[in-house]
Prior knowledge:
The protein is an alpha/beta fold. The protein has helices at residues 21-24, 30-47, 74-95, 103-111, 141-152, 156-162, 189-203, 221-228, 240-252, 290-300, 316-322, 328-332, 342-352, 364-380, 392-411, and strands at residues 4-7, 10-13, 50-52, 68-71, 98-99, 211-215, 232-237, 259-263, 273-279, 301-313, 356-362, 415-422. The chain is built from 15 helices and 12 strands. It starts with a strand and ends in a 6-residue tail after the last strand.
Amino acid sequence: MTTTVSTGAGPLPVVDPARWPDVARVPRAPLRAAAAGRLLRRAADLRDLRVELPGGRTPRSAPPGAPVLRLHRPGDFLHRVGEGGLIGFGESYQAGDWDSPDLVALLTALAAAPETLVPRGTHWLRRLYVRRPPAAELPTVTNARRNVHRHYDLSNDLFALFLDPTMTYSSALFPTASDGTPQAAWDALPAAQHRKIDRLLDLARVGPGTRLLEIGTGWGELALRAAARGARVVSLTLSEEQLVLARRRIAEAGKGGRAEVRLCDYRAAEGRYDAVVSVEMIEAVGRPFWPEYFATLDRVLAPGGRVALQTITMPHARMLAASRTHTWILKYVFPGGLIPSLEAVTGTAARHSRLRVARADAFGPHYAETLRLWRERFAARSAQLAELGFDEVFRRTWELYLAHSEAGFRTGYLDVRQLLLTRDGATP
């Protein structure tokens, strides 16, 4: 179990090297650390950041209200970033080398046009520290279950700490003000999750008697909503923890005769269905397997059927670069994943199935607000993590993951969309 020690910079985690070997290890790369120092100064100038050194010293002035990067161990920070780039940046946060009083504001500033932070003519240096995703995490039939286990099987109690009572782990859809701003609040989150689910079910025309396949069960809320409409639901998951809780929730709701949850890879799906729905699952499929994913949707869809997907998206050029990069998120949070672009979804479906994207509705700002609510809830209840067996480095890992994701949606680097796919592309 990780403990903390009190230093002049505040409580910093003591890292268990058996649990977090790369966080415990501080590399020594003087030349790269010097280059990281120059990059930090450039980022501070371009983004008007306030960099604080131990003792409150600031090497440059910054405007009032500027995002703050507070360095507790500047040397370790620079060596980690110099050797590992953005993975080193994340591991430095996990280790407690730096903090920020407003992590989302800092990450949002850094995430805006990140390519401009690197001087022209030096992008080739990226290959010195960027690594390919490991083959062991490629989401094959064998690896996919292991990848899912590393995230979704951590603990149902962990997710219950910060999710609302619907246990829905995807973007909500809030009411909006006249200017389109999401009206998000914690007590409004369950209704907003139901609004999202109901809209997806409406896209797929799920109603009484509909044979529905759900790919990616989560903790069963969509299956419950569909069963309440009179549909007959088969839901597939690779998470044993989710399987147990989803089955229990369905039984307790009296919907066991209408909703069945199976421990099954999407590639092994059987039967024919009037509708297929999947919420933020394609991100775990992996680019090499997108053709098989869409071919599977086409194979199980009955004539005249409809597919409704919810997916996070990113710009196509960034997706191509990300597909060749082992990122901090992949290493510590979502192994084997890749967020697609809308172009990739549209093109892959057209090339490898008879399905065509007939409608695509984006609502990225709603995900930023969903993540804000989760992050605030996680922070408010993080003291309970230790009781569940999670240490301080884990807390910082998930704190950074939630803040990083929120920043992505606030900058527009990430979006979320609900897609309707049909065989003729028709929307009626």
